[in-house]
Amino acid sequence: MLRGMYGAAAGMIAQQQRQEMLTNNLANANTPGFKADQASLRSFPNMLIKAMNTQGQRGPAPTIGELTTGVYLQERMPNFRQGDLMETSFNTDVALLQSMMPETESGRPGALFYTMQNENGEIRYSRNGNLTVDGQGFLTSAVGHYVLDTAGQPVQVGNEEFRVNPQGVIFTQDGAQVAQLNVVYAEDPMQLVKEGDGLLRFEGEGELPTAIGNGAIAYQLQQGFLERSNVDAQATMTEMMNAYRSFEANQRVLQAYDQSLEKAVNEVGRIG
């Protein structure tokens, strides 16, 4: 009976974690460049139950059968599918649109990212093209992280009157070339970990290679546009309702076990 309680409790924990993941996705449905997390429920390894200490039994203990040990939420993984584009007409909004990617050994498509620098001076990556210009004229993310060029340096545009061509080259209002935004390629985006504020940390060795000059990769930057979040709000709401109902079902099973244990202690024990 206690094993049944553990299984029901494991199901409740898994559904609660799934609900938290879906809630975070829904909360970022309007965050530019946000990539929805996805995960699946998997069962723990089954246990093989055998009868032990059987009187007069010769040979190996007879097998009773398998016992399931509950479920857990598998590792959360972002879905790096391209989001829809939204026109804003702001110079500081630059969408990264990828159109051709090389085949990978894993079969999963790679992904492109901007290169940014966090407050500790470390290299991070992002798909959020909602940029701004700080008081010193540097191009930054909406929360103040520097956007880097192909030389790994912060991009200084002076003011918001700049132009970005499809290759990411930045020009001032009078046509002078300032820098080129660095776009990098991740062959296996699953090696990137979310850190918050739209930043991703690379868990592999070194840094991600630049996509500039790679003939197998085709992309363009569109100024005055933003890449929307790829969260499907309707599908997410449906999944949240399913997770809630599954949580309730496991809760009722747990309550049934609790009532049975209470009866066994208070009634069966008194009869004995």
Automatic annotation (TrEMBL):
It comes from Halalkalibacter wakoensis JCM 9140. Its main location: other. It is found in: Bacterial flagellum basal body. PANTHER family: FLAGELLAR BASAL-BODY ROD PROTEIN FLGG (PTHR30435:SF19), FLAGELLAR PROTEIN (PTHR30435). Pfam families: Flg_bb_rod, Flg_bbr_C, LlgE_F_G_D1. Residues 111-170 form the Flagellar hook protein FlgE/F/G-like D1 domain. One of its GO terms (biological process) is bacterial-type flagellum-dependent swarming motility. Residues 222-266 form the Flagellar basal-body/hook protein C-terminal domain. GO terms for cellular component: bacterial-type flagellum basal body. Belongs to the flagella basal body rod proteins family. The keyword NADP does not apply. Keywords: Bacterial flagellum, Cell projection, Cilium, Flagellum. This is Flagellar basal-body rod protein FlgF. Residues 5-35 form the Flagellar basal body rod protein N-terminal domain. The keyword Magnesium does not apply. The lineage of its organism: Bacteria, Bacillati, Bacillota, Bacilli, Bacillales.
